[in-house]
Each structure stands twice: as C-alpha cells, then as structure tokens.
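Good morning,

Both structures are done.
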Amino acid sequence: MEKKNVWESLSPAKMKELEAFSGEYIDFLSRGKTERECTDLIVDMAEKAGYRELPAVMGKGDRLKPGSKVYAVNMNKSVILFNIGKKPLSAGMNILGAHIDSPRLDIKQIPVYEDGGFALLDTHYYGGIKKYQWVTIPLAIHGVVVKKDGTTVELNIGEDEDDPVFFVSDILIHMAQEQMEKKASKAVEGEDLDIIAANRPLVIKGGKKTGDKERVKEKVRGMLLDVLKKEYGIEEEDFISAELEVVPAGKAREAGFDRSMILSYGHDDRVCAFGSIKAFLDVEAPDRTSCCILTDKEEIGSVGATGMQSRFFENCVAEILNLVNREYSDLDLKRCLQNSAMLSSDVTSAFDPLYASAYDKKNAAYFGCGPAFSKFTGSRGKSGSNDANAEYIAHLRKIMDTDKVTFQTSELGKVDKGGGGTIAYILALYGMNVIDIGVPVLNMHAPWEAVSKADVYETYRGYVSFLRHCSI
C-alpha cells in the first residue's frame, strides 16, 4: 500500500500555514529546552487563551460549565488543561497526551572538582542516550538553584552569543587505540560525561582571607566557585537543592537546501507536545470535554510525582468533576475515565536509508507522509505495549479521512530489533481507548534530532480533527 506524501497535496494557502506553524515551533524549541521552561511557555499560551489556574478556581468556589477553561501545574514540570464540553463528563473526554522531558545530562548534587588544571562538573545522564554522541559538542546549562531561604536562581547559560558554553572532552584519535576497540556502549562511560567548566586559576590579592585556604589549594576550582558566587549568587552547597540540566547549546534550525526539515535538540517529545497544545487551544466549544496532558519523566518510565504514573491526572479529573457536578462521585470518575479516548502523542522512528536493515520497509514511518499511528509499541512480542483495538482505529481513520489529514501507520523497527514505550499503556489501565500517534524522527535520542515540517504541521491537523470529531 503506497503512502501519501503531505507535500504533494499542499495548496499555496496550506503551505503558508505550514511555514508559519514551523516558525512558531522552532521558536518554542529554542526557548523550551527543559520541562520547566516548556511548562512556563505552555502556561503563558494557555493564559493568553483565557485559561485559569485550577487551584484559583477551586479557591473561589466557582462552578465549571461548558466553555470553562482551566489548567493545573504539577511541581513546575508538567501541565494538564481542560476545556469543558457540552456533553456530561460521564460521556468521557477526548485526551491528547505528550511528554516534555528529553534525554540530557543532569549535574549531580556534589558536582564540583578539580583535576589536571580543569574545574569540572560531575553529571548523571538522564534517559536513553548513546553516550559517545555527547562529547566535544557545545553544551548549555539550564535550570534552577533553590537556596535554603527559598530564593530561586534561574540559570540559562550557553544560549546567547555572548554566553560561554561547556563541553565534554574526548581523547584524540592518535591516542585512542584502546577506545576504538571497545563496544560503542563502552567507548564513553557514564562517569566520564563530566563537563569542563573552568581552566583559569584564582588569584587572591592582598593576602589570604578567612575561608580562602581551600580555594587556594585548588585554584581552578576556586575560580569556578568565585564566578558562581559573584555572577549568580550561588554557593557550592546550593548544588544540593539544584536542578541543572546540560543540553546541546544553540537554536533549532531549518535543515536541507529545500528547508523542508528542522534540526534541533528535544524533538522527542516536544514536537508532539507543541502540536498538542496548539491544537487544544485552537479547538473552541468542543462537544466532549477536551483534555491536554503534557507530562514529565517519560524518558525514565513515567515514574515519580511528575510522571504519568503519579495520581496527578486522576486527582485533577476528580476536582473537575466536583466543580462541574457540585457533588463528587467515585463512580462518575471511573465512568469519565473509562469512556474517554486518547491519542498518546509520542514520536516514532523515521525510516533511515543508511540503516535500512533495521526496518521493515512496509511498516516503517517515512518523512513527509504525516503523523504515524502505532497500533502497538513495546518490544519483541509486544512486551510492555498498549495494543489499540480495531474499532477505535477504524473510527480514527474515518475522522482523518473526513478532514483530509494525511497519515501513515508504523512499527518501531523490525520485530526483534525495535521497541520503545510511551505513556499509552498507563492511560489504558482506566479502560479507555488509547493509541500512539506522533511525528517520525531521525536521530532519535541524539543531541540533534530531525523532523519534517510537513509531518509537524499535519500532526497538528490530525490532533485538531481528533478533538473535534472523536466520539467513541
């Protein structure tokens, strides 16, 4: 069965919309490199569209009714939004769910040390990465440092042209005989992904002062601590209560002579998150209540208080029901969740002609052919997978065809080679209809990933159609 290509069906008007949408997405990617930054951007978008924070609505005792728009933030790292529809919540919701965390390096709580004339920061990688891809590239530091008095220092170092950048060193090829004989997974060890942060020794003029002894002993480390204190107001002990993420430095860019692609850090899964929030905010007065979940921790199993496995989503739905019905019922909550339908929006692997042997070509996702529905993910014998039912898929096919949305289906590599997880199986536990759908990505989990502009735009259109028409 031949796949359709989005580019070949675009009218001049749609092409203009595509380019404008891609420009907005590039800006979102460049400004939102962490889950905290994405949360801030999403909240700004929501408030401009008239959404109110759920705790504030609860505090006033306001009742929610069709047309009410609310959002809730979880620990500044995930967001859930609701647009109350005309039908009762017991009929279920139409849910878009994506994650806003991406693979990266995290700075440890006791990170600063000196060795060989350098001051370094010790890191712990987050998510599935090929560690050798993170050496010798420009890196930036994003995040927060929270002091004991509750003061928060926000850091974003390495993105402006005048900012310094950081890097992880690698041994030169002339001396790399032993390294080159290792497996790729061992060529660079996790404990060797420490970033070089300073090289100049501290010079103390006017004699030693109280507390300077250690700084003089390790002068480069002393210089780093001195800069951190003077420029950012950070003491070494403040790293204990910091969340600092090391990410590739630089803005998202158009790629290819034809400018048909976007190269950036963090497509997985901010490409689906951006399309989801844009579609969600653009669909007014839905029949069924719309919900958009933008969550954290997917890259490490959706665990923790800000991951999809937490009770935050369920608790928010319970609060929504209470504000709509004025009388909470556990049975109403269960009915609402079971009768809901969800698109678990997450990227999939795009066919790569340089590694064709890893793919089943008939069932691979291709650049430019629109969002890819994955009936199941998991690995090998569908282990850890949500397997969507045929009736739900047929309903979605009809919706996409009605609005002339170009889409494709895919699996993540050959049966015994591929595999991956999303948040789909977690929501499926409620008994709702769930399927994975997302943008095909090249270089997935690498510092720089690539997507097609056509797929980014068409995925957004698919999300809009789902929110407007899904009724199963």
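Second structure follows.
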Amino acid sequence: MTQKSSFELRRRFLQFMAASPALYGFNVLGQSISSPYAPQHVQHAKDAVNVFDFHEVAKSKLSPGHYTYMARGSDHGLTQLANSEDFKKIKLRMRRLVDVRNIDTSIELFGKRYASPILLSPCGRQSIYHPEAELAVARAAKNKGAEFILSTVGSSAIEDVNQAAGKPIWFQLYPDTDWQVTQRLVKRVENSGCPVLVLTVDMPATNREALDRFHRSTNSECQSCHSPKAGVLGKKPMLEGLSQKSRGKGGAFMNWVFVERLKATTSMKIVLKGIVTHEDAKLALEYGVDGVIVSNHGGRAEDSGRSTIDCLPEVVAAIDGKIPVLFDGGIRRGTDVFKALALGADAVGIGQPYLWGLCSFGQSGVETVLDLLNRELEIVMKQARTTNIAQITPSYIA
C-alpha cells in the first residue's frame, strides 16, 4: 500500500468517525450533552417531561451532518458550553408567605402584550428539521401567543410565515454588502407588515470545525440535500430574485454608520442582536436603536468562552431602562428564564429547544416546548413568591 493510499484510508476513517452517531452525542470537550433524564419512550409530544426529552428524539432522527449544524459551536465550543453551564452557577433567593395562587407571566414589548416572556429566536434552514419548517413554528407561536423571529436564511418566505402566524412576525436581517440589495430585502419585509427588524451584528466570521468535517461535494448523504439537483437546502425564499454576487459569509463590513443608514431607511423598529458589552450598549443608545438582544449566536460565532448570562448585567446597566433588553443563549429551564429576567432581561429567546421540538414532532413539539418552559417558569415564580414578571428583580439573585 502506498503512503498516499494509506493517508486516504485514514482520512476516510476519520471522516466516518466524525459522522458517527456514537460520537455526535458528545461535545468537543468529551462531555455528554444528552439529558441526564433521557426518555425511554417518547412517542408523542405530550410524553415529554422536559425539553431535554425532545433533544434525545431529535438526535435520533437527524443525520449527523444536520445535527452538527444545529448543535455544535465555534472552535472548541467553550462559549456554547458556557451559555448553558453558567446558569448553574447562579443561585436564587426564595421568599415565603405570599399568596401565589394567581400567576401572571405576561409582558409588554414594543406596545404589544404577550402571554409569556419567552420568544422564538431566529434559526435558519428549518426544512432540515421538519418538512413544514418555519410554518409549523409560526402556527405554534400563534397558538401559544409567542413572538417568532424569521431568519433571512430561513426555509420559508415571510409572507407565508405571516399567514401561518396570523399576524406579521419579526424578521432577522443578514444584510448584503450591496446596499441596494439590502434595501430591497428590507422594503419587502416592511411591506409584509413586519414591525421589528432584528439586525444580527455578532458574526463577522466564524470557525465551525465540526461542521467542516462534512464535505458536501464528497459526502453522499449530504448530496441528497445540498446538490444543485436536489435544491433542498440551497433554497432561501427571502433571497430569491436578489443578486448574490456580493453576499458573503457574516457581516464583516458593518459598522455604526451602517446601523444609522438602516434606521433611516425604514419605519420598522431596529433591534441589534449580538450586543455583549456595555461599550456597545451605550453606542446602541447613541445611534438610536429601539432595542438590543444580548446574544453570542448560541456560541456558534465566536469562542470567547464568555456566556450571555455573564454579559447581561453590564448591558442592562448601560441601557438603564431606556430601551428593551432581550436575551438568548443557553435557556433550557424555567429557572433559566427566571434568572435572566432577574438580571434585567425584558424577554428571553430560545433556539435549540424549539428546534428539538420541531424535529421531533413538528408543530406540536414546538408548542409543548413552550408549554414546558412556561410551566417551569410558573413553578419557580411560585417558589420565589413572585406573582408577575415585574416583581422578578435582582433581589432574587443570591
């Protein structure tokens, strides 16, 4: 056997192992990311007792490549791991002897009342998780009174999602370096009735090594979705009819002047997604944005090792109540929601948990994920003796 053929065999073996279901239940640090309460028989959405149950079902249904796209972070995965692990470091102070038979979890955001502070964050390419993709999520959001943010690289058009949601939803923007292309996309979204434009500012570049191990051009499994003939994942309805010549990965070209220009071109409220420092929070105020989301792209963009729950207090302090501060990253329990609210978030977003539900059981899975988290939130609110969201303050953090 020649040295070249030996190297090729070794390369193929490592590629096979990277795609093995035996390994993709572990993160890059070798720690299991399976639920410690893994379900034995979850045949229907109603069988789940927590959101981790849906993770187990989703993991069994997804191909290794698609699971990796959803679940793995950037570089060594330290930021992604910190997002969830840092919640465990926060302890709560529980009060006693307050009548908590009636709990109100509703909030007001940009003049609209919501039944819960939990919203559905933007996640792209949802057709890889379920054939009904964002339409199933939108119907679930409608039934549960939750806000849904559609991604620029989603599998569904905003007009169709609005119809499924029964109202105009929010839209997350990945802008193009060509201002005319960006302007056309923004105008389409505005014409659909969208009230809030969420500009992602946290991904000028990324390094997803785990995903890079799945080579679309040589992996036969990937070809069923990614080949030009299949055209499944290449379809991005929000970008149809727009020139893609200048569309690159990430938003390395963006600066505060771009934010100013975007704000001047639309009547929609502008929310910046990806603010994690007090310096940028203050600049957001200076440039007149309408809200910020404390987010690090779920640990999929950078590997600073710093969680969003660690970043939240300094952003809240800098904003000082002038505009809404939203939060996402690592929410897996109702107690996580409570902790984020106690540290100053006005609302929280979930990403992977509702994708687990979508992949497992479609619309009913997403609805049950929201039900479970809201149930857990009500439980911890009763334990802390808070009867409404406004009462959840930093005094409950030990």
